[in-house]
Specification:
Structural class: alpha+beta
Largest sheet: 8 strands, antiparallel
Number of helices: 10
Number of strands: 34
Strand order of the largest sheet: 20-34-22-30-31-32-33-21
Helix content: 25-40%
Strand content: 25-35%
Radius of gyration: 44 Å
Length: about 650
């Protein structure tokens, strides 16, 4: 403390000097800043917790994503292996059946290639007074022609003219480089393999100057599947391409060489490689969350303080949920069903709460019990009647079996002509079809057969991506315009420019319109909402259950039909995914809200610090003024003392 001394001459003390104003004010302000230092301690504390929960949120979100990937990785993945790749390779989709096939490739498909006689130049006008015609493989249809009768052209000119026709035949000019003969030759090659993609060239008048000669004939592939060409030489299968996907369901064969004495063994089997990789990734992400929680719950001996998440109820809840759900059972399965938990498929919890993979158990489950693995991991549904099928469920749908009752079956929108479609149109006709709120114009010409009318309508609608098609009623023979989808959201309409009895489509000049019907019924005796063919339960344990009703008729039109039951099971991994998704959902998830609460605390601390600083700034100015005035008073006292001392001497 600064001693101001005494002003009386008899005092033993005296004024020794002026005050250090800045130092004194700084000491006072520092003392008054103690609440700020206390708040900053809390700021560090809350910032650490916020960052920790942000990291937890990131890891929980990664865990949820890994479960989604695992549960959608394709449980029915199939592999196709061949004993040798010399003649054929193969790929398989999930729809392929497991099995073994013996394949002989007897002949590869080839694209036709014709080559002309040689010419000395590709650009000189060496061709004249002719028509170059290209016909289809059996000469029943002329595909196109280049007419240079009465004029001349070059090989390159003819090539360009052929290519401009837009045919599936490519023309090129090849320089064969033979010194002893003219070396420029026109070559035509089919773009696709197979006999039906072959062509014929005609020069009028013949024989013409080009004299095209087939060097490679169009040919189909010939394959023997599970039959021996040596003993059954005529049992081959022909296809126009060397890439064949319609012999063995779900399998694509790629032929590369032919030898009907060399068999290739094709094996189709289940392939769980990708699924196992995704299960391993799920385990890794699960353990990432658990390890982080454990590390930040633990007392830090080095820093002599509890972990940043210690005592945090939200973090404790996440850990408890992880352990509870990972050790839980699939809901809705029989108690006698062995495959109802992570443990039985090889995902075991250790003492630290981490998941460990028992490879022997997991490999056996993936190889021999894939359906059961699917039941453990995902939500599954099945039906007892082929007329119904499980579509989906809501988060609150209770696993179990639920009865389905149908009162009204779904219908498409169907606009039928007023009279039967004529076998052959007697005149031109224009139909206007409305589907999805869009009008489509169909131009029909006199002489079209009824089949050609249907084809013309469907081709036009397909090219426009319209959600409607046409057909001929098997009962009445009337032309029908039908919506592709079922339900009240799908309306079709049609009108013609001629009367219905004029030897035409039978539609007539009055607009015909029809709207589809939604399915109606109940699920487990509870009210359900129909949309198209989908029936959704509104109440009870089945609430949110979706069933597809494919029935087109009812046995009892008055009382409706009982259609059996739909059973629903909820997998362990899917329950865990739902919970992690709920926890990590942006803005409204529990973790997001928790982070937000710490951000609010930090904002509050920041506001308090700013308020205290503003108050201290004003106090500092006042203190400086006061102590400056004190300094001035001391200066006057020093002056007075000096004057008195001089006068007394």
């Amino acid at each position: 403390m600064t001693n101001l001394g005494a002003l009386s001459g008899g005092s033993s003390g005296g004024v020794t000097g002026q005050l250090d104003v800045q130092w004194i004010v700084d000491q006072i302000i520092f003392a008054k800043q103690q609440p700020i230092r206390d708040l900053e301690t809390f700021e560090v504390f809350y910032e650490a917790k916020k960052e920790a929960f942000q990291e937890v949120n990131t890891r929980v979100s990664a865990l949820e994503s890994s479960i989604y990937k695992m549960n959608n990785s394709g449980f029915e993945t199939k592999s196709a292996s061949v004993s040798t790749e010399d003649y054929v390779t193969a790929t398989a989709t999930s729809s392929a059946d497991n099995g073994q096939y013996t394949i002989y490739v007897d002949q590869l498909a080839s694209a036709q290639s014709d080559t002309s006689d040689g010419f000395n130049s590709a650009d000189d006008q060496l061709l004249s007074n002719n028509t170059f015609e290209i016909w289809n493989f059996d000469s029943s249809e002329k595909l196109g022609e280049v007419d240079y009768s009465g004029s001349t052209t070059s090989l390159n000119g003819l090539k360009n003219s052929i290519n401009s026709l837009g045919l599936d035949v490519t023309a090129t000019v090849i320089n064969f480089g033979t010194s002893s003969s003219p070396n420029y030759k026109l070559q035509l090659t089919s773009e696709d393999t197979g006999t039906e993609n072959g062509f014929n060239v005609v020069e009028n008048p013949g024989p013409g100057q080009l004299n095209m000669d087939t060097k490679i004939a169009a040919a189909n592939a010939q394959v023997y599947v599970n039959t021996n060409p040596a003993t059954n030489p005529g049992d081959f299968i022909t296809r126009s391409s060397n890439n064949i996907s319609d012999i063995i369901s779900g399998v694509t064969l790629k032929l590369s060489a032919a030898d009907n004495t060399k068999p290739t063994t094709l094996t189709i089997s289940g392939d769980s490689t990708v699924l196992k990789e995704n299960i391993q990734e799920f385990v890794t992400q699960y353990n990432e969350v658990m390890d982080y929680l454990n590390a930040h719950f633990t007392y830090d001996e080095e820093k002599e303080r509890a972990g940043v998440l210690s005592g945090e109820s939200v973090a404790l809840k996440i850990k408890q949920d992880l352990l509870t759900l990972a050790t839980g059972k699939t809901e809705g399965v029989s108690g006698r069903d062995k495959y109802n938990s992570f443990a039985v498929i090889g995902l075991e919890i250790n003492q630290k709460g981490q998941l460990e993979i028992n490879d022997d158990l997991l490999d056996d489950a993936l190889e021999n019990h894939l359906d059961e693995v699917k039941q453990v991991l995902t939500d599954q549904g099945s039906a007892t009647n082929s007329d119904i099928s499980f579509v989906g469920s809501a988060d609150n749908t209770v696993a179990g079996s639920y009865s389905i009752h149908v009162d009204v079956v779904a219908e498409r929108g169907l606009a039928a002509g007023a009279a039967a479609l004529a076998a052959t149109l007697a005149q031109d006709e224009v139909l206007t079809i409305t589907s999805g709120g869009t009008d489509y114009t169909i131009n029909l010409t006199s002489g079209m057969t009824d089949a050609e009318v249907v084809t013309q309508i469907n081709t036009t609608l397909d090219e426009a991506n319209a959600s409607a098609f046409s057909q001929i009623s098997e009962v009445t023979g009337n032309l029908e315009i039908v919506s592709e989808d079922y339900g009240s959201g799908h309306t079709v309409a049609v009108v013609s420019d001629i009367a219905s009895g004029a030897g035409g489509t039978g539609i007539g000049t009055t607009l015909i319109s029809d709207t589809g019907v939604d399915v109606e019924g109940t699920i487990d005796g509870n009210a359900a909402t129909g949309k198209g063919r989908i029936l959704t339960s509104n109440t009870g344990d089945s609430k949110g259950l979706l069933a597809n009703i494919s029935s087109t008729t009812l046995n009892d039109a008055i009382n409706g039909d009982d259609k059996g039951t739909v059973s629903f099971t909820r997998g362990v991994a899917e329950k865990l995914r739902d919970r992690m998704y709920e926890m990590s959902f942006p803005y409204s998830g529990l973790l997001a809200k928790n982070v937000e609460s710490f951000e609010d605390k930090l904002d509050d601390i920041s506001d308090k610090i700013k308020s205290i600083n503003r108050h201290l700034e004003s106090q500092q100015a006042i203190l400086i003024t006061q102590f400056t005035q004190a300094n001035e008073a001391l200066a006057q006292m020093n002056y007075l003392k000096s004057t008195l001392s001089n006068n007394m001497s």
